Inverse folding.
């Protein structure tokens, strides 16, 4: 495995965290990495809600069926998209831009020795509705996903799920 690409393979979904806080500097680095992501026509439609209040994280963890570990994480970052800002006001562009921002956050977490895991929100309507209600989101703001972040209390081996069957060269046949 090449040394230069190690960071990518080391990034794994980490769902157990120590109690240690994530420093303000680290949080800012995560957000800077997110906003360095590619974005169609550089419209940067991604928006973020930093959840550093344990009460907020606990409530969201209860609202989402997939979120119990968010309660134990010292930090949550929700990635949202602004349809009014997206290229051509298009949801697909918005989703692609936000996905790139999410991956940058996950890699920046790994680079800083943190562990992180995504909690899916979009496209599950029941989850979108709950998040929308709780944060009183305007109609043009779409919650995409939540990233739980903390100092890791579990270790996972680096890996790629490389499968040569997924790859074709120069043709689909
Ligand atoms: C769109 C998306 C939604 C996900 N939602 C959840 C989730 O709700 N809960 C969870 O524990 N993991 C979630 N994951 C993490 C995946 O389960 C994880 O990335 C996958 O099993 C591969 O493992 P790895 O991240 O360690 O490589 C999500 C990942 C993606 C890309």
């Amino acid at each position: 495995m090449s040394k230069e690409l190690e960071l990518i393979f080391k990034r794994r979904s980490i769902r157990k965290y120590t109690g240690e806080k994530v420093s303000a500097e680290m949080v800012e680095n995560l957000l800077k990495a997110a906003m360095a992501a590619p974005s169609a026509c550089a419209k940067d439609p991604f928006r973020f809600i930093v959840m550093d209040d344990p009460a907020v994280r606990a409530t969201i963890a209860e609202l989402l069926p997939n979120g119990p570990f968010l309660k134990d994480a010292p930090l949550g970052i929700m990635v949202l998209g602004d349809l009014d800002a997206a290229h051509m006001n298009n949801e697909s562009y918005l989703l692609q831009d936000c996905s790139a921002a999410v991956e940058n956050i996950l890699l920046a977490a790994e680079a800083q020795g943190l562990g992180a895991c995504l909690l899916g929100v979009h496209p599950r309507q029941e989850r979108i509705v709950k998040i929308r209600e709780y944060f009183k989101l305007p109609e043009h703001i779409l919650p995409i996903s939540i990233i739980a972040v903390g100092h890791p209390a579990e270790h996972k081996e680096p890996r790629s799920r490389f499968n040569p069957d997924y790859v074709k060269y120069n043709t689909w046949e």
The chain has a mean pLDDT of 97. Residues 12-13, 15, 66, 117-120 surround flavin mononucleotide (CB under 6 Å).
